[in-house]
Structure formats: structure tokens, C-alpha cells
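Section 4.2 – Deliverable D4.2 (structural model, holo form)

The reporting period included a commitment to supply a predicted holo structure for the target in complex with flavin mononucleotide. Inputs used:
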Amino acid sequence: MTSVIPTDLSASPIDAEPADAAFATILRRRSMGLSRLKPDPVDRRIIERMLEAANWAPSHGDTEPWRFTVFSGEGRETLAELFEAAHRREPAGGPARGAQEGARKRAFAAPVWISIGMSPARKEDGSLVMSEEEEVMAVACAVQNLHLMASALGLAGMWHSKGVSVDPAVARGLGLEPPARLLGFFMCGWPATDWLTSARRPLSEKVHWVESR
Ligand SMILES: Cc1cc2nc3c(=O)[nH]c(=O)nc-3n(C[C@H](O)[C@H](O)[C@H](O)COP(=O)(O)O)c2cc1C
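Output (C-alpha cells):
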């Protein structure tokens, strides 16, 4: 890959090597869902590295509102129970057998699941230090860091934010009571398929430069 740093900046403090490495990782990051993950376990140190990267995210007021729970190995039985709890709210009063099996199958469909929680900083009177929106944005920064590190380490994964991944019963089971929120799960594992490629619509559609008047 050629350097993205213009040569006329070579005398500046910008170091092309880390800038190019950062951009290469940004380009490599792809969302890869359950069907693209191998069942093989992932070494805990790999996950810890990703979580360390997440923990270096910015947050307004240094609130650091990201909260993660990692489910792997037999720990996924606990996750299956949480997914079942989401079905338990159905009118019948208890999960149908199919739903129970579905919950278990889903929990074991990835070797590692990381719940993405947002726990806002609060003042003594219980009010929020920062707006909920800012706290959610900080968590998104943390997840991006996590995903970038996963990609750099060759681990495939995806942020899932629908259905049971944001279910209130699952949130409760994770201790994320309001004003805390469950923003989804990051599921990951070694890639079982080719690494995905992607594209973006032109930047010119999204950027407006104002350089003189
Ligand atoms: C906040 C957030 C939530 C997402 N939720 C889902 C989801 O529920 N299901 C899904 O298939 N993809 C989900 N994605 C992944 C996007 O579909 C994906 O980022 C997009 O298609 C671009 O692909 P890329 O990540 O490989 O660049 C989510 C991404 C973000 C940032």
C-alpha cells in the first residue's frame, strides 16, 4: 500500500507509517455475521486486547460509559438463558420448546459474544452528567476501537443491535437497568469464509469544504 501522507508533509511531525497502518486497519474492518464465524475458541488474551482498545475510546467528561460482558465456552449457557428470558415474555407464560432450542443454538453460533452496555455517569441527585446521546456516542467509539482491533488481529465480528440483542429482559439479566442501556452484542470468532470486501459512496457526497469566502 502506498503512503497516504503527501510528500510535501515529509518534514512535518506526521509519521506516514502509523498513519498508513491505521488506515489499512480501518479499510480491513468488516462486519461479518454468525454464518461467517468458525466455532473454534478464541484465546482470552485476544479478547482482552480488543477490550483494552475499547477502553481507550474518548468520552465527554471522561465518563467512560461502556460496559461489556464476555460470554465464551460454557459461559454461553448463561447467554442462552438470557436469550430464552427474552422469549419468556410471550403470552403463553413460558418459552416454547422451539424458542428454547433457538436461543441455545444462537448463543452457541459464535465462540465469543460481548454485550455492549451503556451506563451513564450520574450526579448525586441521580441526574445524568452528560446527555444520554453523548454517552451512547462514546460507547459507539469504544465499539469501533474494539472492532478495529479485532480486524487487526484477524478476528471477524459484527455489532448486532436488533431483536434479542437489545431485548429489555436480556438487558435486565445483564444488570443494565435504566438509565443504563443494552446497545447490542458484538459477536466474533475466527473467519470461516473469505474476508469480506466493501465499498463506500463517494466522500464528495458527504463533505462540504469552506476554505475561503
Ligand atoms: C450501531 C450498529 C449496529 C448494527 N447492527 C446490525 C444488525 O443488527 N444486523 C446486521 O446485520 N448488521 C448490523 N450492523 C453492521 C452494519 O450492517 C455494517 O456496519 C454495514 O453494513 C457496513 O458494513 P461494514 O461494517 O463491513 O463496513 C450494525 C452496525 C452498527 C454501526
